Amino acid sequence: MFNSLSDRLTATFKNLRGKGKLTEADIDGTAREIRRALLDADVAVPVVREFIGRIKERAMGAEVSEALNPGQQVVKIVNEELVGILGGQTRELQFAKQPPTIIMLAGLQGAGKTTLAGKLAFHLKNKGHAPLLVACDLQRPNAVRQLQVGGERANVPVYAPHPGVSSEAEVPTGDPVAVARDGVATAREKLHDVVIIDTAGRLGVDSELMQQAADIKAAVGAHETLFVIDAMIGQDAVNTAQAFNEGVDFTGVVLTKLDGDARGGAALSVAQVTGKPVMYASTGEGLKDFEVFHPDRMARRILD
Ligand code: GDP
């Protein structure tokens, strides 16, 4: 992820090396190169436009610095602006004063929600929490079973609609809202301090799916709603994120499949267009392929 973007930006900055003073033409040329690199990386057009506008404005007005030459100053500005579009500060989960903290996962089918649920449970368990996973994806065949397997790996219990679902192909029936409610009641009873609810996705955004997610959120009073998005979906990321932002008003974003070789535009667009922070990144199929998302580290990774 980001390899090509990273190479392009590094090459652009190389051209500024050794320059005593940057002319307007230097700044224009650099801005043009950065713009092209971002668009080729699939960053959404409005995000690129705003980003470039800010870079140019700041580079033109950059104060003469003793410590940094003009080229280094441009790199510094780009770095700061990248951190900004990635959401600024690291944002971790906010726990409810009165446990359990209820976390709901939402997103398209295949985004990586069920996989993430196990990883997040594992992460929180390692931090001393006692999570309960709740299986509310009653749409996708095997989603419940998959969550149960994830729970077993993370050594975290799973509340599922039919405890006895054993056949691989069986799709449990039931009302996902009722399952979510019962799951939270079970968490209270068994003194779990965190509940992670996996919900159903569809291949595309549709109103029924969105309504179901919104109904679950309202029924359980979720404290955090994490929008899970596959970073490989490119330009579609923005529309999908906006639809989920309107539909379920999520509190944070999880980017998945950052281990892939996609161009990374989704990662750079979603926080900016929704105004919601990226909180976690998933980087593989294993339980430990998961990290807290730090905008400053990600920006450094892109610019190094
Ligand atoms: P859901 O429909 O949103 O619950 O998606 P799943 O959790 O079932 O994930 C869909 C597919 O993507 C599965 O094959 C996962 O193993 C895979 N997957 C999930 N997260 C990642 C990731 O971070 N990296 C990679 N390479 N694959 C992932």
Automatic annotation (TrEMBL):
<comment type="function">
    <text>Involved in targeting and insertion of nascent membrane proteins into the cytoplasmic membrane. Binds to the hydrophobic signal sequence of the ribosome-nascent chain (RNC) as it emerges from the ribosomes. The SRP-RNC complex is then targeted to the cytoplasmic membrane where it interacts with the SRP receptor FtsY.</text>
</comment>
<keyword id="KW-0694">RNA-binding</keyword>
<keyword id="KW-0378">Hydrolase</keyword>
<feature type="domain" description="SRP54-type proteins GTP-binding">
    <location>
        <begin position="277"/>
        <end position="290"/>
    </location>
</feature>
<keyword id="KW-0733">Signal recognition particle</keyword>
<keyword id="KW-0963">Cytoplasm</keyword>
<keyword id="KW-0547">Nucleotide-binding</keyword>
<comment type="subunit">
    <text>Part of the signal recognition particle protein translocation system, which is composed of SRP and FtsY.</text>
</comment>
<keyword id="KW-0342">GTP-binding</keyword>
<feature type="binding site">
    <location>
        <begin position="256"/>
        <end position="259"/>
    </location>
    <ligand>
        <name>GTP</name>
    </ligand>
</feature>
<keyword id="KW-0687">Ribonucleoprotein</keyword>
<comment type="similarity">
    <text>Belongs to the GTP-binding SRP family. SRP54 subfamily.</text>
</comment>
<feature type="binding site">
    <location>
        <begin position="198"/>
        <end position="202"/>
    </location>
    <ligand>
        <name>GTP</name>
    </ligand>
</feature>
<feature type="binding site">
    <location>
        <begin position="107"/>
        <end position="114"/>
    </location>
    <ligand>
        <name>GTP</name>
    </ligand>
</feature>
<protein>
    <recommendedName>
        <fullName>Signal recognition particle protein</fullName>
        <ecNumber>3.6.5.4</ecNumber>
    </recommendedName>
</protein>
